Model the fold of this input.
Amino acid sequence: MTPATDSTRFQAADPQRFETVLRRLDAENACDPNLEVVDGVPRPHELVYAQWLTDWLLRLAPTATEELRLAARGQHLCRWLVPRNSYHYRLGRPLFDLAGRPEKNAR
Done:
């Protein structure tokens, strides 16, 4: 169980769908060619960042909503593919659709 889904503090409306979205976000960020050494092991930078941000969110707001947890996990989704000055929120839209979240929450 990941911190984003710790059942002692959080229950997603549709747990299976929520887990699927987390796995898809992590799978996409695992493709980052930029590596960061964590505990002596090279890992994809954006995957490390997404997991760190999720942990940080839950330290600050253990009762964070499903939307906020997904937003934190997907904040830098495939960031290495798009130059920062041209990044647009719609890159992550298909995953928010998969999660059953309205567009107003995907911005």
About this structure: Strands lie at 35-38, 41-44. Residues 45-60 form the longest helix (16 residues). The chain has one domain: 3-105.
